[in-house]
Design goal:
Order of helices and strands: EHEHEHEEHEEEEEEHHEHHHH
CATH architecture of the largest domain: Alpha-Beta Complex
Strand content: 15-25%
Shape: globular
Radius of gyration: 19 Å
CATH topology of the largest domain: Spore Coat Polysaccharide Biosynthesis Protein SpsA, Chain A
Largest sheet: 10 strands, mixed
Structural class: alpha/beta
Number of helices: 10
Length: 324
C-alpha cells in the first residue's frame, strides 16, 4: 500500500471508493472492471472488518492499490465516510462512492468525473441489473408529499432528460460522484443510519445546500442489487429499512400519519409475500424485525442493530430462516 501521507498525482485525483464487507468475489470483479478502463481513476478499497481475505487478495492482484481496513463493520455510512476522508486528505478533486456488487463499463467513470466538475452538483449513473443488462433498476429517484418516502421513479414518470442529464430528487448510493468541494459542503453519510436510507438522507441535505442532483443517462453501471442482503443480513435489512425509513421520513418533513402508513404497508406486503411462499416462520420473523425497527425508532436508538438482535438473526440464518 502506498505511503498513507502521499498525495495523489494529477491522473488519479478522481478516487473511487469501493466498500467491502465479506463480499470478496463481487469486490474483485468490481475493481477489475474499473481498472480495465484505459482512463481508470484511482481505486480505494475500504474493508469493514471482513473475514474473507478480500484485502489480501486485492493486494496480491494489484500491488500498490490503496486499501483501508476499518477493523470492524461500520456499515455503509461509516465505511464510505472513511474512504471519503482518505480521498479528501490526499487532495482528490472528485470522489465516487460505489457498491462493490457492481460492474463498471469502460468510459462510465470518465463521464461521471466530467459531470461532477460542472459546478455544485452530485451525479449518479443509470443503474441496470447485472444479470439483465437491458433492464433498468435506477434512472432517478422521487421524493414528494404527502408521504415523503423516496422511491425509484417509474419509467413512465421519469422527467425528460436535458441532453444526457436528468434532474432528480434523490440519488442512489449504489454510485454517487461529486467534487471534493461538494462532499465537504454537504458532509458524509449519516452514520446514525448504518445501512439503508443514508443515500436519500444525504440527497436531502445536498439539495438543501443548493447542490443539483442529477442522473447521467449516458453513464451506465451494472448492479447485482442487494447482494449484501443474504443470510442474517436479510433479516437485519428489514429492521434497518423500517427504523431508518421512519427516521428519514421525519427528517424529510413527513408526519406521524405518513409513518404509520409506511409501517402498515411494509407489514402488509411482508404478510402477503410470505403467504404466497407459504413461509409462515419466515413471515413471523419478518414481522418481528418490523416491530423491532418501529420500537427502536421510537426510542431514538440508531446506529448498528442491537447485538442481541444481530445474534438472533445469525441464529435464524444458520437454522435456515427462509424455510416454511
Amino acid at each position: 500500500m502506498p505511503d498513507p501521507a502521499e498525495p495523489l498525482d494529477d491522473r488519479s485525483r478522481h478516487v473511487v471508493v469501493v466498500l467491502n464487507w465479506n463480499g470478496r468475489a463481487d469486490t474483485l470483479v468490481c475493481v477489475e472492471s474499473i481498472l480495465a478502463d484505459p482512463d481508470a481513476p484511482q481505486v480505494l478499497v475500504v474493508d469493514n472488518g471482513s473475514t474473507d481475505g478480500t484485502l489480501d487478495e486485492v493486494t496480491r492482484r494489484w500491488p500498490g492499490l490503496p486499501t483501508v481496513q476499518t477493523g470492524e463493520n461500520l456499515g455503509f455510512a461509516g465505511g464510505m465516510n472513511r474512504g471519503i476522508a482518505w480521498a479528501r486528505a490526499r487532495g482528490a478533486a472528485v470522489i465516487t462512492v460505489l457498491n462493490n456488487d457492481t460492474v463498471v463499463p469502460v468510459g462510465t467513470m470518465g463521464v461521471l468525473r466530467s459531470a461532477a466538475r460542472e459546478g455544485a452538483c452530485a451525479v449518479s449513473p443509470e443503474v441496470r441489473y447485472r444479470d439483465e443488462p437491458d433492464r433498468v433498476w435506477f434512472a432517478g429517484g422521487t421524493l414528494s408529499p404527502p408521504d415523503w418516502f423516496p422511491h425509484h421513479t417509474p419509467a413512465a414518470r421519469l422527467a425528460q432528460a436535458e441532453g444526457d442529464t436528468r434532474t432528480v430528487d434523490v440519488l442512489s448510493g449504489c454510485c454517487v460522484t461529486a467534487s471534493t468541494e461538494v462532499w465537504g459542503a454537504v458532509g458524509g453519510f449519516n452514520e446514525r443510519y448504518f445501512l439503508n436510507f443514508e443515500d436519500s438522507e444525504w440527497s436531502v441535505r445536498a439539495a438543501r445546500a443548493g447542490v443539483s442532483l442529477r442522473v447521467r443517462t449516458d453513464a451506465v453501471i451494472l448492479h447485482a442489487v442487494s447482494a449484501s442482503f443474504t443470510g442474517a443480513a436479510a433479516s437485519l435489512g428489514t429492521y434497518y429499512y423500517v427504523r431508518n425509513g421512519l427516521d428519514f421520513n421525519r427528517a424529510a418533513g413527513g408526519d406521524s400519519r405518513a409513518r404509520r402508513r409506511f409501517v402498515t404497508r411494509v407489514a402488509r406486503d411482508a404478510v402477503a409475500r410470505r403467504r404466497r411462499e407459504r413461509a409462515w416462520r419466515a413471515g413471523a420473523r419478518e414481522l418481528r424485525m418490523i416491530a423491532h425497527g418501529w420500537a427502536d425508532y421510537s426510542r431514538g436508538r440508531m446506529g448498528p442493530a442491537p447485538a442481541r438482535l444481530a445474534r438472533t438473526t445469525a441464529r435464524w440464518a444458520s437454522a435456515g430462516a427462509g424455510s416454511p
